[in-house]
Amino acid sequence: MNDALNITNLTAGYLGRPVIFDLCFTVPQGVICGVIGPNGSGKSTLLKSIMGLIHPMQGTIQVLGHSIDQVRSKIAYVPQRESVDWNFPVSVYDVALMGRYAPDNIFKRLKNSDKEATLKALEKVHLLEYKDKPIGQLSGGQQQRVFIARALAREAELYIMDEPFAGVDSVTESAILKLLKEMKQEKKTVVIVHHDLQTAFDYFDYFVMINRKLIFSGQKKEALQPQYLFETYGGGLPALDRIRTAGNAREEIAKS
Amino acid sequence: MDIEIFFTAIFLSVAASISGIYMVLSQKSMYGDALSHSLLPGIVLVFLITGERSFFGSLIGALFTGVLVSVLIRRLEGIKGIYSDAAIGGVFVVFFALGILLISGPAEGVDLDQDCVLFGEIAFVPIDRWTIGDYDVGARGVWISLFLVLLALTFHLVMGRVMKFVSFNSEFARSRGVNPEIWNMIYHIFISIFIVLSFELVGVILILSFLVTPIAASWLVSGNMKRLIFLSLTLAAASTSTGLVAADALDVSISGTIAFMQGVTFFVFLSYYSLAKKRSIRRLH
Amino acid sequence: MFQEPNFLWVFAGSALLAISASRVGVFVFLQNKSLSGDVISHSLLPGMVIGYLLSGEKNFWLLFMGGFITGYFAQILTEKIIKISFLKADVAMAVVLTMFYGLGVVLLTVAEKLPYGNQAGLSAFLLGKAAALTNLDVGMYAVLTALILAFVKWSEKALITVSFDSTYAKAIGLPVGRINTLLTSLLTGAVVMGVQAVGVVLISALIILPALGSRLISASIRQMTSYAMAISLLMSAGGTVISYIYPKMPTGPIIVVVGGMLLIVLYLFRKKTNEKYE
User: TM spans, by residue (chain C) (predicted)?
Assistant: First the structure.
């Protein structure tokens, strides 16, 4: 079976400035994978490169063994909640239905199966009774669940989510976690960008740790090494120490 | 070319470059478009009430409508789901239509028409003389535009500091006890005065061009405020003069040629900016 | 009044215009581009004058094509400025609008000097002459309106998806660039067609006001679309009736002022739920 993600030598960024350097890793199918790193570590850049939203400067990305454009129908993408205007006049159902859209049906009438899949997805995130509500009337957690319903409606093999746990209530959190378990049983792959280290080890079973470079990728039991966490999150501190030591040394020399 | 036309155009372009800067920097350029189209009904209403068109009458009418338009736009954008550009557009078209209705019906005698509001006619500047007693002191347009230069300079010297503060960081200003809404309102009133005094000379479209285009072009290449102002003044004067010369040579609309020249200047600067950016990206690799 | 053929033509013409403008206007509103209509309407002036210079007469389709080309080009330039520099939409729009309009005015003075120049006609043409709509105009409006409505219907799902979440639209492989091109073309088409009836400035009103008014009272795009249609029909009906009763009043501005009054009413009866989320 192909890997869900196979990334080699990926360098990507904006306006000619690379944000992530030379990443190489694979994510096998059937895992719940957390992409972990501090703010500014390039998590979103990585996700955008995988989705083909920005072109990599170097390297190759294979998704389910193919280039992204060949497998878009098998991938569901959940962008950050803040990336859209929630006052937009659409209903919960309208947004979830977008999960069924693809280049080959967007200009055609939708089938009944599309409607059924959408309703089923809404039921899974406990939003069926809200289906005709305008999205602007939802709470933050409910909004996040609408986005997840849109992804579920796609009935995809690989789910890519950008910070789905950010700022959600505990009901939504446990709903998402339950869904993740179900997806694992169904052998689906989920790749989730997440910045909160404390919860990461409860949520995920496979890890990609980055801080502009790859620090670690692999199973949970190997990821639990302090040195990886230190490199991912504490990388700035030793560097500061070194600068301070160098400064002190220069002062010493000046004195003597 | 008539020297009085030349001075009127140059003075106006310089005054507008000083005045429009906060509008451009705080990303509200289309407010200028909105205000310039909306002032018409105010001017006409004052004419209907007083029976004549006077300097102060027009001023008061314009001030009133300027404030009203700003308040209405703010009101509309405050509603969730209503975007600011729709609010701006929605308000100004209604005011403009109201103005056109008034001048084609009840206020026929006001001596304004839609052509004149949009195009203006700077070629008529030398005809409208300003006389004190029997002595002809020059074309009224020259004096009005000179007055606008002084007004703009005064505004800049007195309010420049606080306007800079408000337009760059309104949240921070608020936390320091400066209410950005009041200052923006004062600024809008100032722009309204500017427009009402100048629109008959060159038309509202050229005024908008004066208020925005040279500043936008200079912004592309200047790092600080002083340089920005200096460069935009230079650009405004340069493209106005070339526009005047070209219009004279080709015998076509002066306002139109200047507006077009300003745009061309902008695109020259934009190409320079884009080339410089590409080069710096290439250097990074 | 309703037996009067002229009245009926004027009403039919402005109603067709209002319907297509409001249908496109809803999506323009939702993409936060309401003032694009204003940019396009000012920028089609040079194209229309060139069309006029080429034909030497007011040939509807030549003027339409001329206006369409420069109007569309202006919109592309605006987007280009925003894309390659740090300048925002407001500056880009002001710069492009004044530049194109300036060029248009220059060409207009050229046209006026030509021997065959029927300038009064052209000037009225650019400032709007709804009261002079003929059955011929109305026929062309009907064709164009049918086209615009059909295209919007066909691409509605795509337009909604792109307007709501263009990142997602790209992620599922929709041709976002082409969808936006389609919307710009539809907007340009509606504007070029409307300019002849209500003039350069007031055509923006037919784009903006119905969408703005309907947004105040609706919670879904479906509602917005039908309310916007209703508002635009009320505007054109009110405008044509009033200007029929008071012939001195030009139809275009009255249509817009009626729209303004409707806006006040809708503002007062707006859905308060819209404001109190969360």
Answer: 6-30, 60-77, 89-110, 130-152, 189-212, 224-246, 252-269
As beta bridge partners, residue A211 has A213
C127 near B CB under 8 A: yes
**What CATH number does residue A164 fall under?**
3.40.50.300
Average pLDDT of every residue of chain B: 85
What is the DSSP-derived secondary structure letter of residue A88?
A: S
Closest alpha carbon within chain A to B282: A16
Residues of chain B contacting residue C263, judged by C-beta atoms under 8 Å apart: 90, 94
Domain range for A53: 5-224
Report pLDDT for C275: 47
Greater confidence (C247 vs A71) lies with: A71
Segment C203-215 shows an average pLDDT of 94
Please indicate whether, in this complex, the C-beta atoms of C274 and B85 are within 8 angstroms of each other: no
d(CA B32, CA C256): 21
Q: Evaluate whether residue A242 is within a structural domain.
A: no
In whole angstroms, how large is the CA radius of gyration of chain A?
21
Residue B26 counted as domain residue? yes
The answer to whether residue B285 is domain-embedded is no
pLDDT higher than threshold 50 for residue A185:
yes
pLDDT for the residue B111: 66
Residues of A numbered 101-160 whose beta carbons fall under 8 angstroms of chain C's beta carbons: which are they? Answer: 101-103, 106-107, 134, 136-140, 150
What average pLDDT does this structure show over B74-90? 90
Measured between CB atoms, does C248 come within 8 Å of chain B?
Answer: yes
Q: Does C211 touch chain B (CB under 8 A)?
A: yes
Average pLDDT over residues A84-103: 93
The domain in which residue B272 lies consists of 3-280
Label residue B243 by pLDDT band (50, 70, 90).
Answer: very high
- Checking if the pLDDT of A240 tops 70, the result is no
Nearest to A17 among B81, B282, B284 (CB): B284
What average pLDDT does range B61-75 have in this prediction?
A: 90
pLDDT at position B169, please? 73
DSSP of C242-265: HHHHSTTS-HHHHHHHHHHHHHHH
Distance (Å, rounded) from C-alpha C91 to C-alpha C104? 20
Angstrom distance (rounded) from CA C241 to CA C231 = 15
Q: Which of A121, A192, A196, A206 is nearest to A160 (CA)?
A: A192
| Chain B residue nearest residue A135, CA to CA | B81
Would the CB atoms of C201 and B37 count as touching at under 8 Å?
A: yes
- β-pair type (A58-63, B129-132): unpaired
Determine whether the interchain pair A16/B80 forms a contact, defined as Cβ–Cβ distance below 8 Å: no
Q: How much is the pLDDT for B116?
A: 66
Residue C237: predicted pLDDT: 92
Residue B136: CB atoms within 10 Å: 10
Which residue type sits at C154?
A: W
C209–chain B Cβ distance below 8 A for any pair? yes
Q: Which helix (H) or strand (E) holds C41?
A: helix C36-55
Distance from CA of A221 to the nearest CA of B (A): 39
Looking at the complex, does the CB of residue C119 fall below 8 Å from at least one CB of chain A?
no
Would you say residue A87 lies in a domain?
yes
Taking all residues of chain A, what is their mean pLDDT, rounded to a whole number?
85
Domains parsed from chain C with CATH numbers: 5-270 (1.10.3470.10)
Rounded distance between C-alpha atoms, residue A35 and residue A44, angstroms? 10
> For testing the chain C interface, which of A90, A100, A154, A160 should be mutated: the one with the most C CBs within 10 Å?
A90
Calculate the alpha carbon distances from C23 to A137, B188, C222, C224 in Å. Answer: 26, 33, 11, 9
Summarize the confidence of residues B268-276 as an average pLDDT.
Answer: 92
Mark yes or no for CB contact B282/A16 under 8 Å. Answer: yes
Query: What backbone torsions phi and psi does residue B134 show, to the nearest 5 degrees?
Result: -100, 0
Tell me the shortest Cα–Cα distance from B281 to chain A, in angstroms.
5
Q: Is A200 on the interface with C (CB under 8 A)?
A: no
Span B251-276, mean pLDDT?
A: 92
pLDDT of residue C98: 94
